[in-house]
Amino acid sequence: MSLYQKFIRRPAVRRTTVLLLIGIVLWLMRGMISTILLTFIFAFLVTRLVSAVRRHLKVPTPLIVLLIYALVIAGLYYVVVNFVPLLANQSIKLVNQVYHFYESPSFDSNTIMAYINNYMKQFNLAEQVKSSISTLFNYLTSVGSMGVTFVLSLLLSFVFSIEVKSLKKFSALFLESPDFGWFFSDITYFAKKFINTFGVVIETQLFIAAVNTAITVLTLAIMKMPNLPSLGLMVFVFSLVPVAGVIISCIPLTMVAFSVGGIKYVVYILVMIVLIHTLETYVLNPKFMASRTQLPMFFTFIVLLISERLFGVWGLIVGIPIFTFFLDILGVKKIPTPKSITHSN
Predict the structure, then answer these.
(1) What is the pLDDT of residues 145-168, one digit of tens each?
(2) Is the whole-model pTM more than 0.90?
(3) What is the DSSP secondary structure assignment for residue 30, as one 8-state letter?
(4) Contacts from 234-239 at CB under 8 Å and sequence distance 24+?
(5) Which of 70, 82, 183, 295 is positioned for an S-S bond with 230, CB 3.0–4.6 A?
(6) What one-character-per-residue DSSP string does 252-285 give?
(7) Is the Cβ–Cβ distance between 256 and 89 less than 8 Å?
């Protein structure tokens, strides 16, 4: 028996080698990791939704996919048309208020503000402003790049969802390869286990996002903030990013709050964000992630902290799936398959 045949007949060694090769390929493609993950998330959610609909209605899959993406595009259009102009107007109003306050006679006659102004002159404000403008430009560039990534991922996931049946048939041909069928079989083995663990985390994060959105919209309604549907949709989208999403949504919310109720409303928003962030970080995320993945809350919390340090925001999304994935393939703890995934297969 040749060395190659001995290698194929040892599943543990073979699968470890395949897993290392997958890791190397992903590392080489790290510049495209945002596109890969977003495409995977969109395709995963859409295919699960299609399976849920088809359990009750015998509607052709392409028609369901078209309706889903039509609703997504309509929702994005609604946000852009309603929320972006609102945010732009509030930003202009905020700048004008600061400018008028600075130019008003009360500013010059205020001894405290005069002292602060003289103190600030000790710093090189021109360089600070230039640095801030450069940072803002880089931020806007990254936002534009992320927008392109989002659109590309949405398009790729749409094509995948439309052709999911033909893709499955085509992919099955690789398993029939006489020489390398074992290789693609091992890739399929790892893919199914990762989809299982990722499905658990995605379903949990959707629930957490719904809780965050409900609390935020209720608070905004009490404060009589304008355009609640647009603000609520924005908060829900940001809340899909664990922990960090709540903080990101703080920026536009505080700008709108300042234009509505001044500094007092900004303080209210900041207090609300801190409370929701604390609730998500120390209660919702560890509690529900632990219950759905059947992991101790302490381990769940530690994994979130470490993965955020290693991979940034994406680490908060993929950290738990990767950890549970390795627990599963190492035979330490099998992660149960959610019902939604079981029915869709």
Answers:
(1) 667 888 888 899 999 988 888 888
(2) no
(3) G
(4) 234/79, 234/83, 236/209, 236/210, 236/212, 239/208, 239/209, 239/212, 239/213
(5) 82
(6) HHHHHHHHHHHHHHHHHHHHHHHHHHHHIIIIIH
(7) no
